[in-house]
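Input for the complex:
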Amino acid sequence: ACGTSSSDKNTDKKDSASGSEAEVKDFGIAMVTDQGGVDDKSFNQSAWEGLQEFGEANGLTKGNGIDFAQSNGQADFMPNITRLVRDEYDVILATGFLLKEDIQKAAKQFPDSNFAIVDETVDAPNAASLGFAEHQGSFLVGVAAAHKSETGKLGFVGGIDSPLIQKFEAGFIAGAKSVNPDITVDVQYAEHFSDAAKGKLIASNMYDNGIDVIYHAAGGTGNGVFNQAKDIKQNDPERQIWVIGVDRDQHEEGQIGDNNVTLTSMVKRVDVAVKELANLAKDGKFPGGEKLEFGIEEDGIAVTTTNEEAMTEDIIKSVDEWQEKILNGEVEVPKTREELEAFEESL
Amino acid sequence: MFDILQSIVPTALFYSAPLIFTALGGVFSERSGVVNIGLEGLMVMGAFVGIVFNLTFADVLGAWTPWVSIIAATVVGAIFSIVHAVASITFRSDQTISGVAINMLALGLGVYLTKLWYGKGQTDMVQQPFYTTDIPLLSEIPIIGPIFFQGVYVTSYLAIIIAFIAWYVLYKTSFGLRLRAVGEHPMAADTNGINVYKMRYIGVILSGALGGLGGSVFALTIVSNFSHSTIVGQGFMALAAVIFGKWHPLGAMGAALFFGLAQSLSVVSAGVPLLADVPQVYLLIAPYVLTILALAGFIGRAEAPKASGIPYIKGNR
Amino acid sequence: MANKRLITFLIPIISVILGLIAGAIIMLVSGYNPIVGYTALWNGAFGDSYTIGETVRRTTPYILTGLSIAFAFRSGLFNIGAEGQVIVGWLAAIWVGLAVDAPMIIHLPLAILASVAAGALWSFVPGILKAKLGVHEVIVTIMMNYIALFSANEIIRSVLTDGATTTEPISATASLASPWLQSITFYSRMHYGILIALFAAVIMWFIIERTTLGYELKAVGYNKHASKYAGMNVSKNIVLTMVISGGFAGLAGAMEGLGTYGTISVMSGNINIGFDGIAVALLGANNPFAVVFAAFLFGALKEGAGEMPTGAGVPTELVDIIIALIIFFVASSYIIRWALLRFKKGEK
Amino acid sequence: MEYVIEMLNIRKEFPGIIANDNITIQLKKGEIHALLGENGAGKSTLMNVLFGLYQPEKGEIRVNGKKENITSPNKANDLGIGMVHQHFMLVESFTVTQNIVLGKEPRKKTGTIDIDKARKEIQELSDRYGLRVDPDAKISDISVGMQQRVEILKTLYRGAEVLIFDEPTAVLTPQEIKELIEILKSLTREGKSIILITHKLKEIMEVCDTCTIIRKGKGIGTVKVAETNPIELASLMVGREVNFKTEKKVAEPKENVLEIENLYVKDSRKVDLVKGLDLNIRAGEIVGIAGVDGNGQSELIESITGLRKARSGVIKLNNKDITNLSPRKITESGVGHIPEDRHRFGLVLDYSIGENIVLQTYYKKPYSKVKILNYKEIFNKAEQLIKEYDVRTPSVYTKARALSGGNQQKAIIGREVDRSPDLLIAAQPTRGLDVGAIEFIHKKLIEERDKGKAVLLVSFELDEILNVSDRIAVMFDGKVVAIVNPEETNEQELGMLMAGSKVNGMGEANGK
Ligand SMILES: Nc1ncnc2c1ncn2[C@@H]1O[C@H](COP(=O)(O)OP(=O)(O)OP(=O)(O)O)[C@@H](O)[C@H]1O
Ligand SMILES: Nc1ncnc2c1ncn2[C@@H]1O[C@H](COP(=O)(O)OP(=O)(O)OP(=O)(O)O)[C@@H](O)[C@H]1O
Ligand SMILES: [Mg+2]
Ligand SMILES: [Mg+2]
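Predicted:
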């Protein structure tokens, strides 16, 4: 059943036109977005792109083997998941840690369906957890930042203080200190993922204090960081001021006239992860109960070099070197503040 | 000290400016006797229009884009607020209800149209936002110059200037006298030959214009794009500033500046070594706690314009 | 007289119809098929037992925040702070749900009481400041919302969990969730809270209309001076009103905590149950039973909206627009009343 | 005969009531024309029609012989019609000048109000008509009398030729009334024409030329004042004979009910307004307090009833100290209070008559049990009282707001007297009421006295004080400066005492 079979009368009617064709296929995968749509230029979008690529490769189209249900808030998660279960999708994928509890519950309630969640861990035999080695990516952008910084002062702006964001924080600091142990990193949390004003206040304060590279892991709050950096750049194009983007390539956000303040971005290839998962599931190898981590090795994490001027050969070379060290296990990137402490001592 | 001031003042200013505009709108509306809970919605509308206009015309207008955008947002805000005016003045609806509906309508409409026009829940970032500048001449003044006039948004000073204009208009001109009379004792105004409905329409439309202006300035100085979470509570903070400022334009401005200063301080304090060990939550809630303390300690009782919230029905006693 | 009643009854219905017509026009103008759109909306809200269950679940906290705000309004106070009171109520309920070990008969009521107490305490602050110092409750409640949000996040992180963003689920003895209700609604999250919410509406009606307390609260709302003259303790009444109002909102938090989610998560910004409660209260004209209907309308529309993008490609925000318009129409009942009377006269 | 104003066969309906039913009134130039009628007869409505606030359903208005359609106060102003309303139309937070020029402000080129010019114009007007005002004072800070002069100036500033006064004397002290009468006369001397609504027949006799009487919305007729007398006017108005001299037996005072010693009370501006006052009232007597407004009467009453804290001194009721108890406790110890400001204190205007009837007793049996209200008992009680006290209302479920002032007052009096308090405080109980209602209220006060209750009457109407009281306490500067026997005094003497001058041998009397 391609996702839209008998149970729902309404969708039934709608899909009957393409029904004959669809009957041939026997696999369906759909996703539930966290807050925001599949056009958020971030996570949800990336996941949907992964599904679409998968669809293209396998002759599936939206509403016909692949689909998404958009959530506007926490209250929508469960209804969306349930709707997709009733539409008999084989795999229901949730993008974002916000959906953890709901997927956990759904996995228990619907043991015959398969679930997957991005960015969190769910403990159920019929659920897969797709994680990323954000600390690794953060480490690498930390390396880049340390090379780029002229003042020896870096900033980190977090959204909400949580284990996930702390992973970014720890990786970033570790990377920076690996290059230059004397470098300082000022860490601030906005306690909000969409408070651009707060992001701007924090960035303004950081840049005023001589920080010249800020790494943000703060969603919409990061808009304020970009905004502030661009403002400084506009007034003083000579001033070396940088932002490091997160989750996807935020090069476009950094464009200001002929300059660009986006040094690089720590990209989570949700599309890669999702495509991989879909392929596994299609082949009957759904990794239920497993936790897949997509790191540098799996192409799940990438550091962008879109800003060619800023990401100089030297920096790229150094980043590549450190990447190699991570790959060959020479460097164990810390994921928590405790691990970071130990890491710093070992430097 | 100097450094801290130089860091705090400009940030407080940019944070406050949208609140000042919007709060002034609130003052006009409430002074005319129409409660305006819909400030949040008016800001949403302003932010939406400001961003969309900016995205659409950036190529044509070049450096003038942000200015024309905020004018467009002001105009659309004014037009949008007519909905509130018609409902609460002509149709005698409960003004609070109408304001709440304005909030829902603006957000619904803004995001709906964004999805319709851009096919996604948020717009791109604008290429022509406002940038800070040094105010010519004034920024040269020693000490004061660098603190107050370097690296500031012109819109921040526009907000302050408009606050003074609003004060002048409300307290020195016959228009202001009439507007306030209508909010205090509409029947007295009516018997004096003042068109109560007309004055109230003007009050509400001014609030729409200023709310739209505030929203667009917020979007074009701070966020740079529009989504459902562009305006999250700023309108309510502006409402708080109206009351905090005792329905006086300069008071509202002062309150908005106070909010900006408190936020800025809370961010700056996080970097001060002495305060580094203070759990962050205390710094986060500090601006709000400070506001409550200030209200309880110094500001105290505030009386709304006497007739605000009451629809005026000719000949009712 | 009967005529007047009929009109009062007709107004909300006409408003809803007008709102839906306006929504249809908007869909038409923007190139969607309104029939498909509304079918999706209907299916999303009442399509089957699951959606009905979810609609009820969504309605439950709306009833309570609606009551909370309506209650304050009846005494002339504007509680914009239901939002924060919901958060602290939710937090308290979960806290008790996690920390206490007791049989259900003790544990569940205790958790519910904790939520009420937390909401009440949170609104006590604006209440006492209003009563003793005349500080406007609107600002204080707005500020208390932010304080609630940030404090709750911190408590979740550093007290209820060890740095995590979501707590463990509460023990079953404190849960309002009902496997039976879930099973008959295809695993919707409908829970017993709806009974509590309905009961709360009766309680509010009883307090307001039948008790001396209600008599006093309304009197203070209408005329402070006359109330003082009549020997009522105006300050006490203001505080009491806010506290009861906050209690209702706190209870709404328990509905989410003990009923729907069983946990509490770190929140980024508003949860909106409190703000939507303002609209519900006003739509229900501050009358407890009408609030129940308004909450249901609200819940159904919001729940149904979820189906619109998938079912008809229509952005969910259309529903916000429709709700806003319905509120306008209800609020402008004067004009509808007038039109109805004209219509009547014309008939004769 | 030329008329400046003619209102012919005016009909004005409100939902469920015909406020004006075919009323005609014609005003000659330069005359003062009285409009007389019971409370709720429709006088204010008729004048509001003339002033453009209401549109009549039927009838015609002519101004200087020309038919006019007065659609708004603006139009009325343009036609030279000005009105001084029963409830003042003044913005409290504005200054005198701002209130007067509002809507017609002299402006500078910049659009700014030309306050100096305004002040000058006001000064001229006020000199010309003898209307003393302080142009820069806030309305909330000036006396009622001055507020009224501001209202008059407002109409004159707008060039009014015809002035309507709706019960202007109801809120004034005798001194202020005297001044107002002078003002009215000077206005007519300057060629203005005046319509005066008043319940005080004496005033009609004193200043008016003609008088139109309306009863229950219908015009009864117009008489020349010179050809009539108060008795005739009263019976025309009420439709029956009215007693002017209140009938009462000689008082038989018994034990002390209220004893006040050395009382000091501050007003809202934190200034002592009651300064060492002594007073006692015995069971079975009515003590009237005479005094010019602002000599501490209101503060005295508020401190007895617990609405205001006494700074020092002792208030005893039936030998029990009630100083600074809560209003509730004081009420329960046996004090009834008909407040001066019935809208502010006396009623919850948005409550029904029934709910207002139990404002002091709702928490007691049988109106509530274990904190639960019993509406049946409440409305039964209300039905009984509206009958007994002749409160004219469509039903007990009607909101108090919808009633005319007189009927609101009767409801309050019914409520307070029905509780049978040992001490009944009546502050300005007949303000704004028609003679029929006044007669009724006086009768009730005396009945209470005869039942052995103590009654404290505060009034600016010396007539009332002299007529109803058994003893008169004159208040001046926060103290009782004299106690006089109404049989042995007269208005002149009272007036002197109230102004602070001592009269032979009586200054130190204390009645004890
Ligand atoms: N706006 C209104 N709506 C409904 N009824 C009204 C309104 N205004 C007045 N009435 C009613 O019309 C009648 C006449 O009222 P009006 O105020 O003209 O009386 P009045 O003669 O001025 O009485 P008073 O001497 O007490 O001032 C009363 O029964 C009153 O209740
Ligand atoms: N005292 C004055 N001195 C000078 N010019 C005046 C004066 N009063 C009014 N005006 C001018 O006369 C014109 C009409 O005055 P008026 O006060 O009636 O204004 P208005 O038409 O009621 O204003 P609006 O229509 O805005 O309410 C206006 O142009 C005003 O500027
Ligand atoms: Mg005019
Ligand atoms: Mg009258």
